[in-house]
Amino acid sequence: MRYRNDSLPRPSHLSLRETDADRPYLFTMTIAGKGTQGMRAWMRFAGWSMGCLALGALSGCGDRDGSIKAALALAEVNYPGQLELQDAHLQKDHYDIVLAIKGDPVTRIRFGIDRDPADCTPASACEERLKRAYVNGVAAGIKLKALDQGFRQCGVPVLGLHSDAITTAFTAVIELDLDAEAQQTGLDRLTPCIAAFRQALPAQASPQLRSVALRILLPSGNVPAEAPSPLTFEARLSAKRQKDVSYLVGLKAEDVRADSAALRLYPHYISASALDRRLAEIAQRALADDPHGGHVPEYPLTWSLQLDPRRLDVIHTYVLACSEHKAGEGPCGTDMAVSMRYDMTRDTASDLAVVRGIRDERGSVALPPLPGRKGS
User: Fold this and answer.
1) What are phi and psi of 36, to 5 degrees?
2) Cα 29 to chain centroid, rounded
3) pLDDT tens, residue by residue, 320-348
4) 219-222 contacts: CB < 8 A, separation 24 or more?
């Protein structure tokens, strides 16, 4: 079995892959860009890894074999003959063990083993974690199977999950054609999918099971994206499609249709596509034309990004900037911003405005609201 942390990335600019942003201990990394910051991050990671190899259990890096044995033994006590090993993920000082129900390709139970696996015994906190994980994992498995069945039945199969968190609050990724100016027509195609999904759930399903969170990709080419069968918690988008523009929408248990007013741009797209750099260039040009000037930091920060109330390919945002900056003295303190309306299709900006004095008496950013949707 091959784990994602089996090999080290090569140095350069170091960043966590989006799908594992909430689990940095997986060390699933993408390499992009250049500079001393990336090299320092690489050296910190490599130093930590070499320390683990050199010190072993004394360093607190985790005992993989011991953790697996402890997890399987505890599982056998509580759920005799039901569970088997699926995976093991290294955290900072211990392992998360993922168990599967035998004969069930979907349901997963993930829980953390104590730093010393010998402490993971019956009547311990470790056992309580296993029991909670079992309940949560079974519920998440029921929901994922129902979602897979319902959406596949209506012709909009789920392509994968947004992250590897085993929870009923997972976000499913789909592909759907949405018009730039009239998105509700496309979203209404999901109404029978939502109904079919809920019909596949147990009769007394909780509101959490009946709710839906979706990340919507626009079609890429003339061939529909291939969906895994069955859909599992391990299913992910390809690295290439992870960078595509996408949108988020959620439905509560009582909602029967996805509302276009609740759509919002998937925020990671801004950095994954280097759009943040493009917005920074536009902001810097606006400051160059301003009598009082200003400086956009090397690592730009967008603020209060909003999806246009009508158009799918237009955003409204602020780019934070500094009124004073001296080269070679490190990051400047942002105390101003440039607001803009940006058309992602045409690569054009409008409604540019420089806003100064953006910090309140506590030092927090305080900027006027921008046009947007209720989901943004």
Assistant:
1) -70, -30
2) 14
3) 999 998 887 778 899 999 999 999 999 99
4) 219/175, 219/176, 219/177, 220/175, 220/244
